[in-house]
Sequence to fold (176 residues):
Amino acid sequence: MALDLVENISGGPPLQGTRITLSRTAAHLNVLFQCEDSRPWATLTQRNGPLYQEETVEVFLDPFGDLSCYFEIEVNPLNTVLDLMLRRIGRGWRKEFAWQCEGLETSAALVPGGWTALLSIPFAALLPEPPKPGSIWRANFLRIDRPQNTPRELSAWSPTLRNTFHDPTRFGYLEF
Fold:
């Protein structure tokens, strides 16, 4: 299944487009991001660094559907990974960096006109059993683009209509 991301606040077309392609195996959810980008860049190479301060693609998964806990996995153009779990606490979110997406495989590459990132996310890192046919998860697929000399642009599969991605009530529904 292929989907195009939209600008997160307006829901309109972004300045630089992003297409995602989803597939699955018995053990993995695979997400391919194809990012149009006139100047892809990143500097961070340390795992769990603040990738969101640069250019990155992100996957938010809530297999429980409870809107109070979800997994976040990011990859930048240098193939650096940030993976964490977020839990609702009061009116905010606690970031749990102790969670690691065990078995995660990623790749990123510069390509003509942009960059790509492929994430192969093991279901076993999220739940004891893979989703059965018909299972529904809450999810979002996202991109932070930081073109030179212009403000950042947030793109999403299911736009939050705010200047943040962290609103699970606006996540889409992913049916297996």
Remarks:
- Residues 2 and 21 are 4 Å apart (CA to CA).
